Amino acid sequence: MSARFNLAKENSEAYAAIGKLDTLGRESSIPKKLQELIKIYASCLNHCAFCIDMHTKEALENGETVQRVMGVNAWREAPFYSDKERVVLELVEEVTFIHQHGVSDSVYAELERLYSEKEIGELYLLIATINAYNRLGIMSQLQPKTDK
Known about the structure:
There is one protein chain. By secondary structure, the protein is mainly α. The chain has one domain (7-139): AhpD-like (Up-down Bundle), CATH 1.20.1290. It is built from nine helices and no strands. It has helices at 7-10, 12-26, 32-46, 49-61, 66-71, 83-96, 98-101, 105-114, 117-139. The two termini are 20 Å apart. 26% of the residues are buried.
């Protein structure tokens, strides 16, 4: 499979706008390890190989464990995620598949219990931004480089 249209090259202004959203997310109060779990899980749900590769490596570089990175797809069954992480991973799933039933009242109520309104907004931004990147990567058929 070869790469297609490259938004960063063909419309750098649009790509830079998404980059600004990404920067806001990275600079948020959400812990870096959770940010990367969000990005890995959304990328797995969207089947974006390029983003899975990139964010898995970034998570490991930021001190995340192999066990938690590898286990994120089975977070419901895995014992090594906190309640705060679990509700965020549920939110990632509901936002990524928003066309199915939106964000449920039960997930939102749990978010309100565990996070401030500012943090909820930051989580929304992180999830929306990685979903945008995933869709661009998939449409463009971006491929990760093979590790040597």
